[in-house]
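Office hours follow-up: a student asked to see two folded examples consecutively, so here they are.
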Amino acid sequence: MPETIRYATTVTSIGPLVADFIAQGMLIIFGEGAPPELHDLCALHTPDVKDGGVQPGDRLLLDDQQFTILSVGDVANANLTALGHVSFKANGAT
């Protein structure tokens, strides 16, 4: 059975503070229309597929790394589809 890709994107730029956030277990992404004051702390991207949000159990693929989504906040999918914004936290919390 083929996998369904509900959201796919291409990163277009990475702010200079992104590495600091990743070192703390967090990655913040925003669509390219994000306000300039957010550009330093996030990865900007353009969505290729926006057919749905994310849910616990989904897989997140970043280059050759794979992560399982354990929890999704109440407004995460609305922000993802409207703004291209989501904060990924690698802390194991559900």
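And the second, which I mentioned at the end of office hours:
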Amino acid sequence: FRGPPPPEGFPLHNQIWKYLQCTPPAESLVIPVAIADRIILLVYAHAADSGRLPDSYVEELQAMCTAAGSSFVRLIREAKEGHKPTSLVPL
């Protein structure tokens, strides 16, 4: 979803904006992260100035969400095969 926040959701949206300490944005973006046909999480974004998001940001977020879905698939596959996830930071 990309567009003005729908009025039906204002009670929930107002709580989100309150916690984020921002004014209601002119445009918001919600992108699903999916594994196959199952949505596992939603990414919410809006412009820092509460205006319109630049198209390049939207494209980058879409690519990030696609990559996140692929990463979850890889992690699940490795877990099923008995591999422990690798860490970038030594524990």
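Two things to take away from it. The helical segments are 10-20, 55-80. The mean pLDDT is 89.
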